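Team,

Forwarding the record for the chain on the shared tracking sheet. I've put the sequence and predicted structure together so nobody has to dig through attachments.
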Amino acid sequence: MELINQHTKKIMEGCKERARDAGLSFDNETLEYIVTNRDLLELSPKVMIPTLYDYWVHDVEVLKEQGRYELYPSNPYETVINTRPAISFYNDNNPDWLNVMIFYHVLAHIDFFQNNLYYRHTWDFDFTGQALADKRLIARLRSEKGRWVDYIIEFARGIDNVVGYFKELSQYNGAFTPFKTSRLDFYFDLFLQTEKKIPIHEYIQELERYNQSIRELGESGEKSFFSAVTTKYPEFEAIYERYCEEKTKPFIDLPQFLIEHSPFLNQNENQWMKSILQVVRKTSLFFQPQIRTKIMNEGWASYWHEVLFLKDDRIKGHEVEFARVNAGVTALPRVGLNPYALGMRLFYQLEEIANKGKYSMKFRQILDSRTRDKFDQQTGKGKEFIFSIRKNLADFLFVNTFIDQDFVDKNRLFVAGRRLNQTKTAWQYYVKSKKAEDYRKMITDALYHPPHIEIDQTKGHNGSLYLVHHFEEKPLVKDYIKNTMLGIEYLWGAPVHLETTEPAADTPPKWSLSMPFMGGTPQEETNRGLGMKLSRVLYTMEKRKLTRKVL
């Protein structure tokens, strides 16, 4: 691995000038390295961070990728990491014209890293420097503690997907404000309905009494109303204050809770384990935005490498090669998902609808297809609009806000289904749906969605740890529950309980009646939302033995 030569660096600096003229924004300093395919194979398991701590899984991944490369050799074009300065890696056999295209792609990535608000917590430090310090710490601990270091890393990495990413982000973006439900909202929305469970006619009478107080007394009407409330319900104020106190408690994710409250980790001889948990947690927080913005990030880079390179005079004589490479990167597959292609086409679509003024209520109210096609207010605000999207959104909002029926129809998108042929010897793919809502759901289901786990300190007895999984239509993967809870039990030093939701054992499979042979086969899709019975279950890990109980 070595820095690019001066000739190639000059090409990069020229690309920076043209990218800035087009509106991209990024730091002046960048580092570019030439790497071989072998270098890339060794860096990939470390997410291209050369200074990331050593771990045995990385070595396994290197061996696996080397075997795959021998069977399917390929030349990755580039990789860029979100550091200060930004570091990018390039294959050692790229011609100049290809480097121009790739440099534009990389600069758009850097622009996204340094301007999208989901990366805000990564802007103020150089992660490669932090990773190097962490690597040295773990190397020192490994020399002192031996194989126990790798056990702790493995246990910590088993729960590194439940870090409090949004809590961390809110502190940087200034969006976090203490929770405070108004006394009025609490009284009508929660106290009367869930605490007292009064009949509807009494609820309506109470609403009318409040409205009458406002009509007769104006601003002092609410104060007079609650004077009567406290007379009728003396316990109201205490319940309201307790509710507000509970809601204002800051959310602490599971790794941080173990670091701060684990009796086992806080023993003097185990303090070193907390350092490892902190390293794994910080590393996970750093990479959280990248996995949540894959479609946007790759789409943004693909959009700009195409827009800028097509205007660059260095494309002359290489139009065919560019078309071939670009098509390989941005072609829409009939089955599956290509984030480069989907994101790029969405940005093109959004630029077009903003330029024509179609992102407006006036346009949405038009039902006639011909009128919709001819609608054009020539606002010229397309670039401004996509830069605003680049700044403020992540994949979930991006997909669910902007994939509409017009986009699906224009790009001839569909949801593919799969079934066995009549002889049951091969899978057949067919067009299952061309509806935008079905396509959005398919993409949304493929997005990163870590489980929402909270600690319930009121249910843990005799020193045990009680975890609550908030069900969000996706059950936990059973294959990972045992090993993950085994690690948590070790780190906590006492039994661990996990309350979650799973399909009931007696739920019958949904059979497809469209099969041409007798009996049919279980439908490929899940039965979510189709009458499946769900039950709340409790897993308990005690003395390295896992038990399960239906609640």
